[in-house]
Every structure is written in structure tokens, then in C-alpha cells.
Amino acid sequence: MAASQVLVAEDNEVNRAVLVKQLEGLGCSAVAVESGEAAVEAATKDNFVVIMMNFQMGALSGVEATRQIRQSEKGKQCRSIIIGVTAKSIPQEREKGFDAGMDEILVRPYSLLDLKDVLSRWLELKDLEGSTQTFDDLKAVKDPQLNQAFRKSISGLMNRLFLAVHNQDNGEIKSATHEMKGLCLSCGYDELAGWCSQLEKALMVSDWVQVQATFNAMVDQYKDLL
């Protein structure tokens, strides 16, 4: 079976590495980029069978990148299958992705079997029997390199949140919290991901006392990871 070429667009180093490992385990040839802008550029230059697109990425979101890719495909014979990846399971998030031109939505946390189920609708994949069956996204941090990258990412996000909560910067808190929740869900830290959800809820109603209290609880949970 020839390897199927997949483009991975993910701005978080750990999530990107996990997804590439999963794809390779399923027999896919993966090319990874770190931004929405790079995803549009890569998709314009090459023909990918599938594009795994993170919803939220820096200046150009995965949703907007999808729109631009669909625009660039007009008049072409080839059309990539775009699978959106998000930590949000709400209907509005799915609708936003589909409206932009995504074909599938994959919600974190997901297992290797979940990924295989979605991809198998579009690609011929390897059987999971054998060594690849043991690799699951929730076990990613057992890999020494991924573990180091995870700790570095979490540390940076906690620093961002500390400053944002201190400054009551709604937009920065929302952005950092969403990224942290997706990272924790990908790597099996469900309790810290749960605190991220609580922080998002407090932020929605501008309850700054609860925002601070929730962040303090997150700091305690974070210290347990060290």
C-alpha cells in the first residue's frame, strides 16, 4: 500500500508531534506546518489527499485557512479532504468549520481508533494490529522528547495566563486557556483540562473573582505535574 500524503496544520509542538506519529502509524506520509498561513501555502503548492487542520492558530485560524484553501481550489480537478481538529464539542464550532469548507470534525480528546475511523472514510490505512496499536495520544507524554516538549508548552501557557489574569485581559486568557485545554486533552491530563473549562465558564460571565480562584487551582494542579 502506498503511503497517503497528509498535511498537518497545528501550531502546538506537542499536538503536532502526536498527530504526525499517529498518522505514520496508520501508514500515512505526513507533512507538518505550524500556522494557518503555512497551511494555505503548502496546500496551494502541493496536492494533499487529506489536511488535518487545527481550528485555532495564531493570526490565521484553521477556519479561515480552510476558506482560503477552498478558494484556491476553484477551477482545479483536485480537492483535499479537510478534517478540522478542535477541543470544543459545541454545535456552533462544528457549524463554523463546515461553513468554511471542512469535511469532517475531530474533537479532542480522541484515540488512535477514533482517528482511524475518520480517516478510513477517505484513505486506505494500515491495520492497527501489532506495534502501532500501542501508540495512543493519551500515552504521548511517555515519549521523552514529547514529555519535554509538553512541559515546555505548559510552562509557557501558565506564564501567559498569569500575566493575562493579572491584567484581566479577556482575549489573552481565552486564547491561552483554549490552547492549554487542547494540549492537556491530547496528552491525557483531564483534570487540568477540566480546570481550563471552569476558567472559560468564569470568563464568559466576567466573574473575575472566580477567574482568579480557578487560576489559583490550576497553578496547584500544574505544580503536581512538575
Characterization of this structure:
By secondary structure, the protein is an alpha/beta fold. The chain has two domains: 4-135, 3-Layer(aba) Sandwich (Rossmann fold); 143-225, Four Helix Bundle (Hemerythrin (Met), subunit A) (Up-down Bundle), CATH 1.20.120.160. It has helices at 13-25, 36-45, 62-73, 91-100, 112-119, 144-166, 170-187, 190-204, 208-225, and strands at residues 4-9, 28-33, 50-54, 81-86, 104-107. It has a five-stranded parallel β-sheet with strand order 2-1-3-4-5, with helices on both faces. Helix 1 runs antiparallel to helix 6 and helix 8 (190-204) runs antiparallel to helix 9. The chain is globular and about 55 Å long.
On the 0-100 scale, what is the average pLDDT? 86
Tell me the strand order in the biggest sheet.
2-1-3-4-5
Tally the structural domains: 2
Low-pLDDT parts are 130-138
Percent range of helical residues: 55-70%
CATH-defined fold name of the largest domain: Rossmann fold
- Number of helical stretches of at least 4 residues: 9
- CATH level 4 superfamily of the largest domain: Response regulator
Using only C-alpha atoms, the radius of gyration works out to 18 Å
Largest sheet: 5 strands, parallel
Strand content: 5-15%
Morphology: globular
What's the level 1 CATH class of the largest domain? Alpha Beta
Instruction: Quickly give the CATH architecture of the largest domain.
Output: 3-Layer(aba) Sandwich
List the helices and strands and how they pair.
Elements: E1 4-9, H1 13-25, E2 28-33, H2 36-45, E3 50-54, H3 62-73, E4 81-86, H4 91-100, E5 104-107, H5 112-119, H6 144-166, H7 170-187, H8 190-204, H9 208-225
Parallel strand pairs: 1-2, 1-3, 3-4, 4-5
Helix pairs in contact: 1-6, 2-3, 6-7, 6-9, 7-8, 8-9
